[in-house]
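Why predict the complex rather than its parts? Because the way molecules touch one another can change local conformation, and only a joint prediction can capture that. The input here totals 404 residues.
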Amino acid sequence: MTIAYRAARVFDGLSEQILQNAVVLVEDGLIVSIEPAGSPPSGGEVVDLGDATLLPGLIDAHVHLVWSASAEPHEVVQQEGLALTALRCANNAALHLRAGVTTIRDVGATDGLSIDVARAVELGVLPGPRVIAAGRAIAMTGGHGWFLGREADGAEAVRHAVRSELKAGATCIKLMASGGVYGHAEEPGSPQLTVEEMHAGVEEAHKAGRKVAAHAYSVAAIGNALEAGVDSIEHGSFIDRDTAERMRESGTCLVPTMSVYRAMSEKGPELGAPEYIRRKTAEVLEASRDAFRLALETGVPVAAGTDCGAPGHPHGTLPDELRLMVELGASPTQALRFGTSAAADLLGLGDEVGSLQPGKRADLLAVDGDPTSDILALREVRMVLRDGCGVEGKYSRDELGVGF
Ligand SMILES: [Zn+2]
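Output of the joint prediction:
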């Protein structure tokens, strides 16, 4: 059956132009057509959303489903059983969907649980967003986030680790190119996996048609990751102009995750986050904003990601990242593109989701008001469809809670 969704405004995820009083026709989970200011064909069901904006479901390119925004989430995961962590993942996945996020990329999960979540969503066992899952992140021994993944030293060991994650069902690969904010015996700037190690990993992932995300903060680590041929730089806070130019030329995407630093600096003290996290957050907070401004200025491809799950930053908070992008000089439609079509391209899903076009999956978000002029309207969720199936309701950001 065809269902016609009519709204006062339609943003297709690509163009600057907003269609007024347009209709999106959906059949069997796919978009059939977008009719500008037309009346829907008779016979089908009509859902009139009134003074709402219809846009593609949002895409968060950097999450950790096993974490629930507590002061030291990895301690929580270490102390609880696997079944409880899996249920935690399920709850976090649902939070994304309710916030209008219909696709996520999980870039590091204890025991590779994100792969199971991806399958559960695919099988219809779990209501959640579509998940592109890295499974276990790959770090050097003792490297950043080793507890979210596996350790590998030397090119052949990294090659084996990537092959193993792909065998387990990973649909992307995550490599740790530098230290990070999280972790007490490391600095964000210090390089970790080498060019040779990452190159072997990238080669295996690309052979299998999968993309590689590299966690990297400093110019040295970003440079190593670029030389190895990764597809995206995660965080990238200390990037300089030469490196930005290099990323623009190679088409390597930046996922700046600025909102996590704001969340950790605002909520870290009250949550009781350890001193080392608070100190390093302060160092990265401003740098990450400069990195985003530089990316805008130089034309580096950008995709939106939150790093949600980290201390003080619950799941379903992509609108916070898009709001920061607007505060730092992106236009609202530009920020919306970073959180829809650009993120879809980075995830290798550009042909399926991220924009409203005939033949694409019917991942639709309707919000009250107009996010193309006021990005905060994204918080007023009226309707969320994934593959044409609805999770309806109204959820405000505050009801999502912190640190459970
Ligand atoms: Zn992360």
